[in-house]
Amino acid sequence: MTTARRPLVAWALALLALTTLGAGPPEAPRPLGGLPALNGPAGLPDDAELARSQRKESADQVARTVRTVALFALASLAPAAVLMATAFVRINIVLTLLRQALGSPQVPGNQVLMALALLLTALVMRPVADRVYADAIQPYSSGDATPQQAWDAGCKPIKTFMIDQVYKTHHERYLADLRDYAEPPSPGRPAETDPEQLSIRVVAPAYLLSELTTAMFIGFSIYLPFLVIDLVVSAVLAAMGLVMLPPSQVAMPLKLIAFVLADGWWLVSGMLLKGFGTPMG
């Protein structure tokens, strides 16, 4: 029995020896991807490498947070900035003063006046928007212009529109005064004769001041006929001895019917559109 087992034991030892030789020497442990290399007898990461990696990750996270906050801030300010550089300011103020002159501060509602102002603004700014799209947005989308070139090309028609309105309302002195504030007079300052060469930080506030002044003047002109109606109603009620009857209750229906019979909404809207040079059919 012992003699019969000896060949089997010899074959098992030979197979074990061949398996051990074919496996080769053991491989050294490799560091995991994305982790710092392990060194030292205990196999721990290098402290300096870990500190550098943590500082880099922290700086990247702070930079991403700052960019996100700046993007949201610009996105929240963009509508206001766009409206301030368009015809919306004058139109909205005039419509608000018209509502107050009618004696009905709640009718039409704010949403209705805002919608009407936006629609009239779109009619006025349509040519400017077409030029901005053709000169700036389309070349930038097709890759023919850099962001700076697209910005300069897009600002040019808007700045031209604002300068034209400042000169139409005879408020060009706003441009000169604001330029002196932005760039104080000095011996080396060039004399700007072309308003197109002025920067947008001078043209934008000058345009906004011009629009506020023009809107107030238009509002005064709208107030006058309604003021006459108020005075006539007050005088008639006083002559009739109806002192206890509020004049506003009698004057308001008269102002409403007079405004409607005169087609007042169209007259005011047409006047605003013509004031910006929009052709009327």
Helix and strand sequence = HEEHHHHHHHH
The quaternary structure here is single chain
Helix content bin: over 70%
Can you summarize the main beta sheet?
2 strands, antiparallel
Number of strands: 2
Q: What value does the Rg take, in angstroms?
A: 39 Å
Q: Shape, please?
A: elongated
> Ends: how far apart?
122 Å
* Secondary-structure content class: mainly alpha
Separate helix tally:
9
Uncertain segments are 26-44
The largest beta-sheet arranges its strands as: 1-2
Q: In percent terms, what proportion of residues is strand?
A: under 5%
What report would you give on this structure?
- By secondary structure, the protein is mostly helical.
- It has one domain.
- It is built from nine helices and two strands, in the order αββαααααααα.
- The chain has helices spanning 2-23, 47-84, 88-102, 110-141, 147-168, 173-182, 200-240, 247-261, 264-275; strands at 38-39, 44-45.
- The chain has a two-stranded antiparallel sheet.
- β1 (38-39) and β2 (44-45) form a beta hairpin.
- The longest helix is centred in the C-terminal third of the chain and has 41 residues, at 200-240.
- Residues 26-44 have low confidence and may be disordered.
